[in-house]
Specification:
Blueprint (H helix, E strand, L loop, with lengths): L2 H27 L2 E7 L17 H9 L1 E3 L2 E2 L4 H10 L3 H4 L21 H7 L3 E7 L18 E5 L11 E2 L2 E2 L2 E2 L2 E2 L6 H14 L7 E6 L11 H6 L13 H12 L6 H25 L5 E7 L25 H4 E2 L1 E4 L8 E3 L3 E2 L3 H9 L15 H6 L9 E5 L6 E7 L3 E9 L4 E9 L15 H15 L44 H11 L9 E3 L7 E3 L11
Parallel strand pairs: 1-10, 1-11, 2-14, 3-15, 4-5, 4-10
Antiparallel strand pairs: 2-13, 3-12, 5-8, 6-7, 8-9, 11-13, 16-17, 17-18, 18-19, 20-21
Helix pairs in contact: 6-9
Length: about 550
């Protein structure tokens, strides 16, 4: 080896070492991040919205941070989580109309890039503590395969607040794929685990923690002292102004069923206490100033009879695309980077979280497919107004199969569609609101602006045509005879027992594009299909890598 070659190799080695040292130093200066997600929290059920439930921890976050006053999610659970994790519109992912049920075998495509993967690549420690609900049938859908180095919690929803933490009578509580028997109130267990993780972290690296509660989702339950605290809370709530929701309340009263409101309030209080434990841990560790905490609900409050939530003055609730179903409680606190006691009024969605947090932390998003979300950090940190001219779309088919709630909206107009499909007919009811002037949706302007209705209706049709035809639907019961496992930690098929790539499907490859085109507005056969008018409606892009688009 020549002397010149040796010197080149030495310079390269020194450069590599300096880059490594620089990256470690840079990572150490980056903010820690905690994303907390409530499950079905009502707009009116926090103290800083003048609610009658004690939420001092959330009130503290609001006073020490920014209220994200127009934060929007999908009307139901799994789609919001999919949007959060990928920064992509869940219509593309095949998870919109219904949630991922225990008997489903689908999840989010393993080729989709998840937010924690970008943070992990930037030197972050990553952990998830709580409810997953984004796929469980194959290991490729598991949190540990989606960028979370540590996972403590549940693959499903509705596991209960006390042991045995089961879904469909199958045990669902694990740590990194291994079933566990931790005892106690579920909400407090999550707080203890996050606090333990923070205390035992590698202090030379920042951390990214995702903390999705099951609270305050049904079936509601709480420690007795919290139940006693709210036994006399007001249960005479104002109407939600959503027919389905209000009808359930009337029927419950006629049947002399006890109100869910007292137990719901107890569960919300317990969640707030758990948040307080984590905030106290940050204080004790001396890292609160440089830890960005984002909190929001996965959808509007479950205001129907058994849910107990209150979204007033917003209209509707969970499952609706009225504001009460999609405009949610949200706050962000980062003392080192955000002015305290402010409010951000620009529209922000769950899809925007990934690019926003990446910008705040100064890391690169590693996605190959284009993000649908926007970086909203300039609006949060600097008060910059970011207008929303392009449309936001949401949908739900839950709980009634063939009964859809849809919306398309921007800063000015909002169209809500209620569609009921019977065997030989379809009924469409349109509600058009000037949402900038009528945020609580009292004045239906559909008859006065038929041109606007027609334009937004066509946009919804085109948006819905992106949906994979095998995506989720509202399926509240399993296929006849389906049986659940005894322990869900054993359920995912291991990676070594799976094929190396996605299954091709039944049609031969040459027939896929013509068959996809023939489906038209009904949906897509080809994953992430980008239909082009100049190709007579045929796809570009799709399931395989060459045509994937890197986000700018």
């Amino acid at each position: 080896m020549s002397q010149v070659t040796k010197q080149c190799l030495l310079r390269r080695s020194l450069l590599t070492l300096l880059l490594a040292i620089s990256n470690v130093a840079l990572a150490a200066d980056r903010p820690n991040i905690i994303v907390m997600l409530a499950d079905d929290l009502g707009w009116a059920d926090v103290g800083y919205h003048h609610g009658d439930i004690d939420t001092p921890s959330l009130d503290r976050l609001a006073s020490e941070g920014v209220q994200l006053d127009r934060f929007y999610t999908t009307p139901i659970c799994s789609p919001t989580r999919a949007a959060l994790m990928t920064g992509r519109d869940p219509i593309r992912l095949g998870v919109v109309y219904g949630v991922i049920m225990p008997w489903h075998t689908n999840g989010i495509h393993p080729d989709e890039h998840f937010m924690p993967q970008s943070f992990e690549a930037a030197g972050y420690q990553t952990a998830m503590v709580g409810k997953w609900h984004l796929g469980h049938a194959q290991q490729s859908y598991h949190p540990n395969e989606r960028g979370f180095q540590h996972f403590y919690g549940h693959l499903h929803t509705e596991v209960g607040f006390f042991p045995p933490f089961a879904n469909q009578k199958g045990k669902d509580f694990q740590r990194n794929g291994v079933s566990i028997d931790d005892q106690g109130y579920e909400t407090y267990l999550l707080a203890d685990e996050v606090s333990r993780y923070i205390r035992q972290r590698d202090k030379n690296k920042p951390f990214f923690v995702y903390m999705p509660f099951i609270a305050p989702h049904t079936p509601l339950d709480a420690p007795q002292e919290l139940q006693d605290k709210y036994k006399d809370i007001n249960t005479d709530l104002k109407p939600a102004r959503s027919a389905t929701t209000d009808d359930t309340r009337k029927i419950a009263k006629l049947m002399l069923q006890p109100s869910a409101r007292p137990m719901y309030a107890a569960v919300v209080d317990g969640m707030d206490q758990a948040i307080g434990r984590v905030l106290q841990t940050l204080d004790e560790e001396g890292i609160a100033d440089n830890t960005l905490v984002l909190f929001f609900s996965d959808n509007g409050g479950a205001a129907y009879s058994v849910g107990g939530a209150d979204n007033v003055p917003l209209r509707g609730g969970k499952g609706d695309t009225f504001e009460g179903g999609i405009r949610v409680v949200s706050v962000m606190r980062w003392p080192a980077g955000i002015e305290a006691g402010t409010k951000m009024n620009s529209i922000m969605t769950a899809m925007d979280v990934f690019p926003t947090l990446a910008a705040a932390a100064g890391i690169e998003t590693k996605n190959r497919r284009k993000l649908d979300g926007r970086n909203m950090f300039p609006a949060i940190a600097d008060g910059k107004k970011i207008p929303r001219k392009e449309l936001v779309f949401f949908a739900s088919e839950t709980p009634i199969f063939g009964q859809f709630s849809l919306t398309a909206f921007n800063d000015k107009w909002k169209l809500v569609q209620e569609i009921t499909q019977d065997q030989q007919s379809t009924t469409v009811t349109n509600y058009l609101f000037n949402i900038s002037k009528d945020p609580n949706e009292y004045n239906n302007l559909a008859s006065k602006h038929p041109d606007v209705v027609a334009e937004l209706n066509q946009a919804i049709i085109e948006w819905r045509s992106l949906y994979p035809i095998s995506g989720t639907r509202s399926q509240l019961v399993p296929p006849p005879g389906w049986r659940a496992p005894k322990d869900w930690s054993t359920y995912p098929i291991p990676l070594e027992d799976l094929q190396s790539g996605p299954a091709p499907g039944m049609p031969p490859a040459f027939a896929l594009k013509p068959l996809d085109r023939m489906h038209g507005e009904r949906g897509r056969l080809i994953y992430d299909c980008q239909r082009q008018w100049w190709l007579a409606g045929f796809c570009t892009g799709g399931d395989n890598g060459p045509n994937e688009i890197k986000n700018d």
